[in-house]
Amino acid sequence: LPQAQAGQLRKDRAEFDRQVTQLVGDRLVESFALIGIDYAAAGLFDVARVAFENAVALQPNDGRWVYLEAANAQARKDNAVATTLYQRAVSLLPDYLPARLSLARLYLAANDVAAARKLLDDWLARHQDQAAPYALRAQVALTAKDYRTALADVDAALKLQPQATSLYELRAKAAEGAGDTAAAQAARARIGKGVVAFFDPIAQGQFDLAGTSAAPDGPAGKVPATPADPFVADLEAATRSVAVADFAKARASLDDAL
What torsion do the CA atoms of 160, 68, 126, 174 make, to the nearest 10 degrees? Predict the structure, then answer.
């Protein structure tokens, strides 16, 4: 690990060890989740797994911890376990988009197009304000050779997030499949590097399994998992703490940043 990251991880683990025997209830569970996120950010997914499993064992019906355990399982490339955990996370957090997107991607990777499509259809029937589910449903439609739906969905995604210029590659494939050579060529000419962005306040981009998580209202692209700037690191630590409602720790991180 980079020296700065290793030092921060040692500091966080020492603080965890100092407090864990004194904590109960929500604070204890949140501490397991936060130290798990720290280990996951460092790529130490097996150690993170223990922390997340402890959090889930203490609060099995809190979808936040189930989601973190699922993302960590996927990071370990244990997709069977990840799928089961994401299914539970979606049932507990039906309006949490990152969990639904992650599960849909795993379904698509397993060639279960119908299951992936249903997850996204259910979301888009209720929410039409984010590009990511449209973009993923376009991929699902392309896999099913439903080129008309793929074109409509990629256009909807681009309307919501025009900076996601990598989507033009998907549009080109859909247009080509539909037999529109001119539209395919026009789309290829516009292919760029911008990716679809969405915010994952629970995991804070520490897994970034699809390379598409981003800070709210920020630029499309990948959230740095290990910022070199201590100020940025403190701000991200504060945001992670807020996500699990540990406001005391969030304030301490903000004090460090200032």
Answer: 50
